[in-house]
Design brief:
It contains three helices and four strands. 38% of the residues lie in helices and 21% in strands.
Length: 85
């Protein structure tokens, strides 16, 4: 499913509505998920993920500062910073 990239403006708007400071996106064609890193608290991950999936029609794996640091480094280096512009 992640053969395509979600509409970035939709992701940016959801980030804005949830007071996200920074967001990186990694869309890997070998994975069924789109990977996102953002700087929100762990308690907000579930609702943020559900909102994104409903707006974009794709599956997301979301990481924050409490997640695996190797995965975060991968997302930041191979991914794209989409928010803020």
């Amino acid at each position: 499913m992640a053969n395509t990239t979600p509409y970035l403006e939709t992701v940016r708007r959801v980030c804005l509505l949830n007071n996200v400071g920074v967001c990186y996106l990694l869309s890997d064609s070998n994975s069924e998920f789109v990977y996102l890193y953002f700087d929100l608290g762990t308690q907000q991950i579930r609702s943020f993920c559900l909102e994104l999936e409903s707006w974009c029609g794709m599956k997301f794996k979301i990481f924050n500062d409490d997640s695996n640091t190797e995965t975060i480094k991968l997302i930041k280096t191979k991914g794209e910073r989409i928010y803020p512009l």
